[in-house]
């Protein structure tokens, strides 16, 4: 087997047994990026020198018998995470020349674990998008069909991992930006509970919804990296002071007796029959593993898209007010007044989707509209949250589709914002409620991947990863490779 | 709910965004479509429902009132578009 086909556990074992060095492994990936990334555009910045220096340091630690399970293993960081001394663009012209002056907490943690950063992954501008077509650095292509989108906003992260241009990648999820792209590229992606992973140094989009996580080639790989990323951080005011469960240790447990709920709203009109068939087959696998399955209801789930498109733009318009052309970021030339400096710097620096969301957010927060839109959406958010509370009184996990169908073609919906927003119809509710959720491969329709979504109660990442791992012991969808990238 | 081109110009002003004239009409159409979709919320029964601002039932954490940050003024000004003598430069504000 080639190095890029190995799991993180196998990579760790190979490094420890001196079958290969971290430098060799890193060079293997850098070589693949050089050969394959021109077709995919999954990286905005490749940090080869930094990677090789980290690899040498990892080899020294391993030679001394030190290091963690992740020491010497490469990864891609989504370009939303600040990396000291390395451009952190967030997919935007606004930050095209921004060299972060500090590390995000998760960058510090994964660097500290000895991981090797190959580069910064492409993404929708400021994580606003579901197809990775809003990036200032151009769209990312789906390795399963380069005429199709990889999903978004973490499109670079998933394309890199799916094509073997990184063994694993970090990602973020505000309304589905980890799970939907993972589904469309045959990966396992997990968004943990809000507050589980530090947001410090993660460029803010919608602060009450944003959460960092992982995209990987299996639940086991995702568990190992999530374990290293999670935990309390005093630098994030919404970080939760609670010990991190043993995700890796919980993977092997039987799921006999696990109660799984199928929300009937997730199987209603709009779900492609090809996707439905994959999800129904997956339900049978879980039943075969001893889980009990019953229908549940999330009656307010159909309101999650409209709720999100008030709450998220409102928070975004506030967060993105910081880009003023004065302290960092793009600054317009030849302006004569301060107001003109603000307006032209922001007009030139932000792309169309970011501008739309800033304007929607500004509008719904403005005098006379606040109650009708923002306050109303916050109340419906509570109803969506209460639905989950009720459902988790009856079941342990909720199972449904991640996306309505397979990946769309590039350009198919890029001129129709509302049609694009409906891509996230199954994923947004988990962000509004704050619960953990993940997507895992559940089969293929027209030779393109279909993702299955699991949602768990607060801080039930371990139970979710356990169920996903057991499913992956009984299926082999997650082991398939896109043609041309073997 | 639909937004007129005039309202789009007003919102863009509030958000400090300069819009080229030819973009105003397409934005008005797209933002109106978004608001129409969002309008589904008005049918939801929310009497007596507490607004939810945040998923976690938590209060703002406090820390001891002690200096914890080092002075990194030079590092932060190094990434600014225009500085001079440790000051951020902007166009003249007072005529």
Report on the architecture of this protein.
The complex is a heterodimer of chains A (486) and B (95). Chain A is α/β, with parallel strands linked by helices and 486 residues long. Chain A has a domain at 3-253 and 475-479: Amidase signature (AS) domain (Amidase signature (AS) enzymes, Alpha-Beta Complex). Chain A has 16 helices and 11 strands. Chain A has helices at 8-16, 22-40, 48-63, 105-112, 155-162, 179-184, 219-229, 247-250, 273-288, 304-319, 338-349, 352-364, 370-394, 417-421, 428-433, 461-474, and strands spanning 43-46, 74-78, 116-121, 169-173, 188-191, 211-216, 259-263, 292-296, 397-401, 437-445, 448-456. In chain A, strands 4-6-5-10-11-9-7-8 form an 8-stranded mixed beta sheet. In chain A, strands 1-3-2 form a 3-stranded mixed beta sheet, with helices on both faces. In chain A, helix 4 links the parallel strand 2 (74-78) and strand 3 (116-121). In chain A, helix 10 crosses helix 13. In chain A, 62% of the residues are buried. The mean pLDDT of chain A is 97. Chain B has 95 residues and is mainly alpha-helical. Chain B has a domain at 5-42: Histone, subunit A. Chain B has 3 helices and 2 strands, in the order H-H-H-E-E. In chain B, strands 1-2 form a two-stranded antiparallel ribbon. The model of chain B has no long low-confidence stretch (mean pLDDT 93).
